[in-house]
Specification:
two-stranded antiparallel sheet, elongated
């Protein structure tokens, strides 16, 4: 079989059977009975860049998103301290914030530690997303949108539970602003 007579090959094959080139003892005009195939190999992931209009993708914009995610993530990772801190420190911090005496029992301690762990998990995720902001652009944009929603819900939760005013103004609106910041930097001019 001549080279020009070979079947066309898909550039990303799952499995392709290609006739083996003729061996010395085979006649060129006769079809080869021996065939060889490419092993079924998973095609490597193809890196697809988002369309140019999707992101404020100057190198400056990419750096701003990367370092913003790292800053927000680092702040969230500080919550790891509360995961392992002694309960006496929690009681002292609770009193210093003007919240009164820290409730007794395992549930308040569990909630404080698990919530802190969730914040730290969020921080680690932000650091991971910062490793390739172009590739993770859609996830970062989605995260920005739900962060705005999360900030608004936190403001409602804080106000309904009687948190101090300084707490309400620091927590929910800060989340919402960070979400808007990420949306701004990951959305193109045409959206």
């Amino acid at each position: 079989m001549l080279y020009r007579d070979r079947p066309q090959i898909d550039p990303c094959p799952q499995r392709v059977d290609i006739p083996h080139p003729p061996r010395e003892h085979e006649t060129i005009g006769m079809p080869s009975t021996i065939t060889w195939s490419l092993m079924s190999v998973a095609t490597p992931p193809v890196k697809i860049d988002p369309p140019a209009a999707d992101i404020r993708r100057t190198s400056r914009g990419t750096r701003i998103v990367r370092w913003s995610l790292r800053l927000f993530g680092s702040i969230d990772l500080l919550a790891l301290i509360a995961v392992v801190m002694p309960v006496s420190w929690m009681q002292m911090a609770h009193a210093l914030c003007g919240l009164g005496q820290f409730p007794e029992g395992p549930l308040p301690v569990y909630l404080a530690r698990s919530t802190s762990l969730l914040y730290a998990f969020h921080g680690a995720m932000l650091w991971y997303l910062s490793s390739d902001v172009l590739r993770h652009q859609m996830v970062i944009r989605f995260l920005g949108k739900i962060t705005v929603l999360f900030g608004m819900v936190l403001l409602l939760v804080d106000s309904s539970t009687g948190m101090p005013r300084w707490w309400m103004l620091a927590e929910g609106p800060t989340f919402a602003v960070t979400g808007l910041w990420l949306i701004w930097w990951t959305t193109g001019d045409d959206e």
